[in-house]
Amino acid sequence: MALYAIADLHLSLGTNKPMDVFEGWHNYVERLEENWRSIVKPEDTVVIAGDISWAMKLEETEKDFSFLHSLPGTKLLLKGNHDYWWSTRNKIDTYLAEKGFHSLHIIHNDSYAVGKYGICGTRGWLYNAATDEDIKIVNREAGRLITSINHAVAQGLTPIVFLHYPPVYDGMVCKEILQILLDRGISKCYFGHIHGTQASRRAVTGEYQGIELHLISCDYLHFAPLFVC
Taking the complete model, does pTM exceed 0.90, yes or no? Predict the structure, then answer.
């Protein structure tokens, strides 16, 4: 039973917003499926850290979620900045149940047990947040991250944190999020959001103040889920 991670699938099987127009994204759905099926087994778990579907409404995700459900493993979904379909927990859980997408689960103010690990996370926010609205959002995201970590710890699990936004990028820091990771002794943090060769070069990966940081954007990983543990 292995744990994998990936982010920024940007699926648009039910909407007209293909990613193939971007360099390196040609036939990305086919490549993703081939890689996924060659790596992930039915008993494995894959965290998808945001920007999952271009759908604007929850009911428009059906084709994208059907595709994900058809792939091996349990999938844990976190919200990204482009997941406009994201609704309340009750509505999403009800929708997934009604459609029979039992392999899909959301992480939202809670955690999910995978062996001895607790899968924790939230969307996060901008590392250069400055406006009053930005500050409000980042404080809310920080609160959700604390709640998620607490949920894992209460079950005796070791937290692994997944975010959509990077906590550190190109010399800039989302101090509210980073401080939680440091205070709670988080040793591994995975994030997405960053695309393209130039932007990826500025991403902070590897050890940072005692935390292993990993970029898991789909294109950065060449459309193959990354082994976590």
Answer: yes
